[in-house]
Specification:
Distance between the termini: 11 Å
Number of helices: 5
Radius of gyration: 14 Å
Bound molecules: 4-nitrophenyl phosphate
Strand content: 5-15%
Number of strands: 4
Oligomer: single chain
Structural class: alpha/beta
Length: 160
């Protein structure tokens, strides 16, 4: 059985596609493509259908040599049922996701991305959209750290 991860931010054009593509890269390197799958979504609909933001794509390519691919979609209540683990980039995203689960049936599946960081100690992957290059680079550093910790957690959970 494939363990299904969903990364969620606001627009699904900066943080969550970066997490999805970096995690896919780590999964490929670990030869676990058949055991773990990744998707991403945004709590807002502003950018539905759009590719990742060009500033985020350029930063990820230049820092890690990883190309960002994807097409934005909006998070929907059925994602709570369909995924094994849902990673919110910040606390606002986390609350917006839980608002779609009023009975708390799936709340155990929803976590903050930064819970999996091992080097950084912070709650949120901050929204880089209205800032400069430094913000995009910081997003990459946090996400890379969290993805490493997340991979170890999923390996233990899935007995990989
Ligand atoms: P993301 O960044 O949530 O990391 O994809 C944003 C993208 C777009 C907007 C805000 C944040 N926006 O306001 O359009």
């Amino acid at each position: 059985m494939t363990y299904k991860l969903l990364f969620v931010c606001l627009g699904n054009i900066c943080r969550s596609p970066t997490a999805e593509n970096i995690m896919n890269h780590l999964i490929e390197q670990a030869d676990l493509k058949s055991s773990i799958s990744c998707d991403s979504a945004g709590t807002a609909s502003y950018h539905v259908g759009n590719p990742p933001d060009f500033r985020m794509t350029a930063a990820t390519l230049s820092k890690l040599g990883i190309e960002l691919v994807g097409q934005a979609r909006q998070f929907q209540a059925s994602d709570l049922k369909d995924f094994d683990l849902i990673l919110a980039m910040d606390t606002a995203n986390y609350q917006d996701i839980l608002a779609l689960d009023p009975r708390g049936e799936y709340s155990d599946k929803v976590h903050l991305m930064c819970e999996y960081c091992t080097k950084y100690s912070t709650e949120d992957v901050p929204d880089p959209y209205y800032g400069g290059t430094e913000g995009f680079n910081y997003v990459i550093d946090l996400i890379l750290d969290a993805c490493g910790g997340l991979l170890e957690t999923v390996k233990v959970r899935s007995h990989l």
